[in-house]
Design a protein that fits this description.
By secondary structure, the chain is α/β, with parallel strands linked by helices. The chain is built from 10 helices and 13 strands.
Length: 285
């Protein structure tokens, strides 16, 4: 498969992850579709063309088709599942992919979640593992993936582990307040630095043979009973307590993302979240 020729980037949803991608795309022509206008001033200051857009709107084609006239490049869907307001997101995704087919989309990349692998009882999962439609969230994620991959574009899905980075440290406020943590200490966490997530998505757009369904995580899954006590120590907070079974919706699994990184010709720059915690918290993360 040849490298896409288009140089533009269309970010469909532009929150925490999108802002990092905008910075990495500096010098490229970037268009961002967001639900509201709150972020537009900062994005425009970075040279981004902005458009407020409701992805679930029945008239999506009327909103987007003129804006995409002449577009040539890669489309990235970064919007969370909540952006698709209907219980069944497939009709809205079908409208979106129909509009995207009117532009010159050289490659189409959807950011999804490792939650689709469900509860593996702490066992390893990889990009090749079976997905599990086991709760409302995984059901919606898989419906979004299905509609995206059947939309008639050169489409890819990148399933991301839990994102952290500057301004976002998972569990920080809960631990700082001394609240009981849901779930068990022996359940596994799979984390991913926001910069590595952005790198993986951008590389998927240009790699010769990325996986159609990739799993991107760091190289060091860790048990909650290791992560949260370390977080408490760095914060100077009391040792955390766990509330027991029933509090975790996504299940316990260990993510092996080595095949997905290898297909991109990359390695994570942040292979172990524990090494990043002190500097992130010292800077107000």
């Amino acid at each position: 498969m040849s490298t896409p020729a288009g140089t533009g980037a269309l970010l469909i949803g532009c929150g925490y992850l999108g802002a990092v991608m905008v910075r990495m795309l500096s010098g490229s022509a970037v268009t961002a579709l967001t639900r509201g206008t709150q972020r537009h001033a900062a994005l425009r200051a970075a040279g981004v063309q902005c458009l407020a857009c409701d992805l679930s709107a029945p008239d999506l084609d009327q909103q987007l088709t003129p804006a995409l006239a002449g577009f040539d490049g890669v489309a990235y869907v970064l919007a969370p599942p909540s952006a698709w307001l209907d219980a069944d997101p497939r009709p809205a995704l079908q409208r979106l992919t129909s509009v995207l087919r009117t532009a010159r989309i050289t490659r189409a990349v959807l950011a999804s979640s490792t939650a689709v692998y469900g509860d593996a009882g702490g066992q390893w999962v990889s990009a090749a593992s079976a997905v599990r439609d086991c709760d409302a969230r995984s059901h919606k994620l898989l419906a979004i993936e299905e509609a995206w991959m059947s939309g008639g574009l050169d489409s890819y899905v990148v399933r991301l582990a839990g994102l952290y980075g500057p301004g976002r440290v998972i569990g920080r406020d809960t631990v700082a307040r001394g609240e009981i943590l849901p779930g068990d200490a022996d359940e596994w966490l799979n984390l991913l630095h926001i910069e590595d997530a952005a790198r993986a998505l951008l590389a998927t757009a240009h790699a010769a043979q990325p996986l159609r369904h990739a799993l991107i995580s760091d190289a060091a899954p860790l048990q909650r009973g290791d992560y949260y006590p370390q977080l408490a120590r760095v914060l100077g907070a009391p040792a955390p307590q766990f509330g027991g079974a029933g509090g975790r919706r996504a299940g316990s699994r260990r993510c092996d993302s080595s095949s997905s990184w290898a297909a991109l010709g990359l390695r994570p720059r942040w292979p172990d979240s524990r090494a990043a915690l002190p500097s992130l918290l010292a800077s107000g993360g």
